[in-house]
Every structure is written in C-alpha cells, then in structure tokens.
Amino acid sequence: MIWQSNIQDSFEKNTIEILKNLDSQFQLSFYLEAEASEFVRFSKSKVRQATAVDQAKVTLTLQSSKKISRICFPMTGQPDEDRKRFQVYFGKAKQELDQLPENPFPVSFPSTGTTYKKFEAQIPTAEFMIDKIKSDTQADDFVGYLASGPMIRAIKNSSGTNHWYSTDLYFVDYSMFEGKNAVTATVAGSNWSESDWQQSLNDSRTFLHQMRKPKKVLPKGDYKAYLAPSAFAELISTASWGGFSHAAYKQGQSGLRLLFDGAQKFSSLFTAVDNYELGLHQPFNALGEIVPTNLNLIKEGKGQKLIVSAKSANEYKVDSTGGDESESPKSLEILPGHLKREDLCKEIGTGLYLSNLHYVNWSDPKTARMTGMTRYACFWVENGDIIAPLQDMRFDVSLYDVFGNGLVHLTQFQETLVNNLTYESRGLGGKKLPGALVNGFKLTL
Amino acid sequence: MTWIHRITEKTTYRTIRNEKLEESLTVVDQGARVEVMENGIMGYAGTQDLSTEGIEHATTKARALAKASAKNSLFQFSDKIRPHAVGQYKSPIQKPIDSIGLDALMSLLTDCSKAMKASDEVVQRSAGVTIVETQIHSKGPGGHETVQDFSVISLNISATAQRGSEIQTRTLHGRSAGYQIGSELFSRHRLIPNCEMVGRQALELLSAENCPSDTLDLLVAPDQMYIQIHESIGHPLELDRILGDERNFAGWSFVQPEDFGKLQYGSSLMNITFDPTRFGELASYSFDDSGMKATKEFLIQEGKLVRALGGLESQERSGIPGVANFRSSSWNRAPIDRMANINLEAGASETEEMIQSMKKGLIVHSNRSWSIDDYRDKFQFGCEYGQWVEDGKIKKIVKNPNYRGRTLDFWRNLAMVGKDSETFGTLYCGKGEPSQIIRVGHSSPYCLFKNIEVFGGG
Fold first, then answer.
1. In a mutagenesis test of the A interface, which of B247, B379, B410 is the best target, namely the one with the most A β-carbons within 10 Å?
2. Of A82, A423, B72, B138, which residue is least crowded by CB atoms under 10 Å?
3. For the residues of B272-325, what is the DSSP string, one character each?
C-alpha cells in the first residue's frame, strides 16, 4: 500500500538522519503510531456517515543526563515536508531541555535489537461493508460501525533499538434492535470471514427473538448471576484503570490495593495474565522495551505482580515489566474454568444471565466496589430456563465479594474481545475471558 | 460541493508531583477534514498532508465515500445543512498563553505542590495544567469562511492523604476546572490558597466518618452539578441519540421526539440553556462545524422541555428545533451532535439560606465517580467531600459520599436554586463511532434537591 510505504520510508529516512548526527550527551527515541482507516457508521441498516483517515504521529523523546523533553508531532509521509518537521521539533525539544526542571527519574533507553513484523490481510473496505449491510440486514434494525485498515507501531532510538510492527485489522461493532430490545456483537479480525459474519448476525437474531417476552422487573437485592465474557470484561476493564499499575498502587490510586497488599483475595479459581502471546498487541512499548510474553497479575486469587514502567522502576526501585506509562494490561487473559456452555442455565438455577454491562465506575475504590448498569440481552433465569428479558438495573458490587467467595464457576470457553476503542486513533490489544458465575450480585436501582 | 476544515492544535501537559517533574509533553496536531456532498450525503476524508496534492487526494476519497454511501443512505439532506457563514471567534483572553515562561510555570506548579502539604500525611501532591491552543479554519462554496481560535487551560490539582490503610484524595473541583482563558489563570495569589485548601481537606477526610445511608435533602455544589447536568440533561437531549444513531455505543435516550414542548422535565425552577456565548466557558464559539451561527437558546424553560441539542442535519431529519452543536473533535472525525455549554440558569436563593432550610441533609462537592444507563435514566454519582447537615447547620465532614436516582424524579425534586453560578467543564466528553472526545462547559449555582438516596463507601 502506497500510504504505508510512504510512512515507512519517511520515518526511516528522517530518524536515521537525526540519530546519526546526535550529540553523545543525548539519548533520543522516536515512537510512531499510524493508521489508514476507513470508518462507516450505520443506523437503521443504512449509512449515516463514512470517513477515511490517514494519520501518523511521532513521539520524540530527548533526554540528557538530567532533563527530559517530549514532543509529539504529525507526519505526512512526504519525506521533504517530514524532514522539516523532524528538524523543527527536535530543535524545540532541545530548547525545552534548558527550561524544564530536572527529571527525577531518568531511564536508560534500552538496546533491544531489531525486529520487523508485517501482517497483511484481506480486510473489508468501506464500500464492501456498505454493500454488505444493504444486502444482509435490510430486514433488521442494525446500528454500529466498521473500522478497517492498516495500523503501524514502530520505535527507533539512539541505543540502536529498531522495531516495526504493522498489521491489517478490522472490526464491525454493532447492535441489533427490535423496538427497545437489543443485542450487541463484534465481528473482528484480519481476514474477512463470511461465515463468521453470517453466524454473528444469526446469533443476534436468535437472541433478539428470545427477548420478545415482557420484561421482568426485579426488586433490589442480591442475585446469583452469570456474567458473560463481555459483561466480565466491563468490570475487569474498569479494574484495569490503575488497578494493576505499580505507580497507582504506590500513590494510593489503585482500586485493587488491598488485593496486592494481601489483605484481600479473589477465589482460587481466578488467575489473570497479561498475555502477549495472544498476538493482540505489538510486543514492545514506546520506550523500545520488549514486553515479557506472560505476566502473572493474579494467581489463584492472590495479587501476584503489578505492571511496572521504566519510570516507576526507577522511582520505586523495582524491575520494569515493560509496562507503558498507563501501566495497564494490554492483552489480559483470565484463565478458564470448567463450566460447560450447555450447563450454564442449569448452574444459574434461578438468577440473572447478564450478556453485557454498561458504564461501570468505582463507587468505593478502597473496597473495590463498582457500580454500573445491565445492558442489552440480559435475562431472568428460573429453574434453569430463560424466562424473560430483564428491565435494565443498576448494580453496586465489591469485586472482593463477587470474585472472592462469590465466584462459583468460570466457564470452560473463553472469548477474545478486541480493543474497539477509537478515541483519536484506533487501538491495539484486547482481552480473552471466560464467563463467570457469581453469587451476591447486588442490584440497587 | 466541497468544504475544507484546516485544524491546528497544540496541547501541552505539564505536571509536578511532590515538588518534582512528573510530566512534560507537547502534542502538536495538524490536519484537514475534507467534506464532499454527493446526492444528499456527505463523505469525509481526513489528511495530514496539507499540500495541494494531499488535499486533492483527500477530496477524491471523500467523494468516493459519499458516492458509495448514497447507495444506501439514511437520509438525503438538502444543501441547507451547510449554511453560508463568514466570521471569526477568539477566546476572550487577557494575557496570551505564552506570556508565562516555561520555567515560571513549572516554578508555580512546584509551589502549588508544596502548598498542598498540610502535613506529612499528604503523601501525594500533584499540580498540573493542560493547555490547548486550537485554530479551526473552515472554507466552503461561495466565499464561506470562518476562523475560530481557542485558548483553553485545565487545572489538575490533587492531594492524596494516607493514614495506615485509609487513603483519601481531594482535588480542585474534581478536575473540572477548565476554561477558555489565557495565562491570567496562573495567578499565584488565587492558586496557592486553593491548593492549601485541597491539601487541608484531603487531611480532613482521613478523620471523617463514612457517609451514612439515608434519604434526605441533597445540596449539590456547582463542581458536582456540572456532571449532573452533563449526564442527565445534556446527553439525553442530543438529537442524534434520540434519533438512534448512538444506540450501539453511547446509547439511546428516554426522551422521545414527541416530548419537545410537552415533557415536564423538572420543577419550575429548572431553566437550562445552550449558551455558546458565555464568557470563558469551555465550549463557547461563534459557529459550529456546519457553519450554523451559535446563539443562546433555552432547552428547558421553567421545567418544560422545549428544544433539542441537535445540529442542522438532525433538525432536518426530525423537524425538531435544535441548536448550533454539530461539532467534531478534530480533522480526523466527522461532526456529530455534541453538547457545548449547557448551563443551569441562576435562581434566587443564597447558599446559606438553602443550608438553613435543610432539616437533615448532605452537601456534596467535586465529582469523583459517575455512571448512568444508556437511556440516561438511572444514575449514580460519587463525590470527594461531603458535609452533613442537621437542623440547618453543617455538623461534620463525611467521606465517600454517593447518591443515586432517576433523572426525571431527581429534577422534579429540585427545590431551591442558588443565585450565584460557577463555571466548570471537561476536555473529555466521549461519544460517537468512531469515538471522539470534545470540550464541554457547564455553569450552575448550588442546587437543593429533596428526597435523595445517599450512601457511603465500604
């Protein structure tokens, strides 16, 4: 693809030029994030808006023995224009070094060699998807969007580190409605799979069909609940806002502090790993460190390891785990249990089948208490049978309760949920999670 | 027909933690969004290559997308969705951002960090600023041209106190202190006392009781009102949500198209405006991205819903009156219906008068947690700092104050509205597919609500 090779050539040429002339008193790195994306959003099975975006940004980090300066700037893929930009922003970074206070926790830019990974695939174009929605969903009320195109991450630094990772990815994140009843799904990957697409649409229609009964309105109280992988992901994603961060732990901002203090624990069924072997995220960070393939965050219910960035490693005198600044897991896997799909409703007995949760936030970080809403295909189950869809309810639960003594089973199956956030740019990463059957899921409103 | 929006934005993040450098990052963004209308639908393409060839390439892409979209478009728009406009806007600043040098700014932030150290128990003291300078230059057919320059500063002041396993964080206004302003914001004699207060109150919270569970009068401070307005008024009134475009992500709305002009949203004390003209508020501007002139409008008047937050495209689709709020986060996203400045107009009550009227109640300050359902009905908010009131007097400080309720019940229980508004906002309102974050402002006085369920942590 022309755009991709233009970005690659320009990045190579301009970084090499500056690095070869770098004064030895400096360390310098360039981190590239780029994408050529097509987005099409659909509402009522028709096109609402279609947008194409080519974007590339470089984060330049310049460090002397006592100072650090960082500037992020856009690249065009046109070498001459980019050359000006690299020179201008390198100059500005040098200028800033004189004015900034000392950097209390300087890090050495790592020397981790050279890697080059490029994954090419047959991903759907905007026009393909517009035709697909027209042909396949005209009898449905389909709403959602396609995000598709190549993505690049690359790092080059003055210690000789040189990593390149590019991949072609897409997802269609959608909901299907019948009145106010709704189901949601994501079809994602590298190569378009017609059978996966049709299967997803058919599964959604089946779920919608099950929602045609009048909604069950529940009183407040504690319920046995099955959290499908997507619902589980909402809780664990919120827990990941600082929950696994060494800096947040040390600075009193971790919602899982008591777990990593050893004062609380989850069930021994619960093991969480930041697992880069899933191939959802590039294996290096913005500094050029190679991340370990497996980092045990929670092992058999006990807080095991926190994610440590190079800066935290220096500040708190611990080893870096290759974490980026956010120190959040990028490829979180919760290991599976033994509950079979066909036994789900039987094991729920009487309780809640929660496909999705919505807008989860801390209600008391100290006790890992979270609130949020049920959303989409959630059902009332009675004596092992799905009886009726649920009226949306607010919950407020402590993770130490529902994933502690309250955790009854994890499912044998897991689902891979790709990162579908597109704020400013498309993200990499994702999660691989089982479903969880828990007691004491508290509904409050 | 083709429109081109060139957007340049520089964002700087400077933070001092415990009197040492924590963060210094400058992000420069520059690009153009080309919009091409074909057969009543717009195609969009964003590029960072601003050369003639780059813009031509983006125009070709946008045209191709418009043509492809026209095969199955949701609505065929008229050319009225892009009115002709000529004009300018500049943030009302007294001193340019760069009139404070980097070393002086870092020195001030270091002093802010120091000022929070009310005792050794205040273990984390973070003083940061986010400074955003944006220019949006739009050109279109027939001499259409607008230039809008924004200067924005958001303060991030935070103190964390720790005693044993008890940890409490207090911030300056829950990180909602964002304004269109210049470097006059960096006034040492205003900032330092505020930082001292933040440190002191973090310490107070260590000794405070947990907020009791009860149903009582709730007095909400403006730095919590901003998000109450945002979540339970702003989002549900967005016309694209009501029309169903956001159902897959942000959600739908309990508000129905037929509710406008009829629904009694809240008590008669409730007056909500869309006001892009308010001095210094985060989302003040002269034109939205369609070119519609931005004017102050009532959304809710004496409690009755009268107007939606919908730009010209949503207005044409629905026939519902709207406002100039069709906005994109940047050159790389298509505009959608967004909040801007959504304000609760001041009433007649003094704060002291409201406290005196409370037999038993809670005053909540500074948001720390927010959650609401996808129809914008059932909400729960957590705040940093609570004051417990009995017999019209503040009796004690309480920690972890939370409250929950349902939107219409809550606003219909609005019993008193303060006479002095304060302005807050956020740089990070999220919405849209692909997702966008945008700046929004909310002004409000203290407001008193009756019969609200409150509770604490633990």
1. B247
2. A423
3. EEE-TTSTT-TT--SB-TT-PBP--EEEEETTEE---B--HHHHHHH-----S-
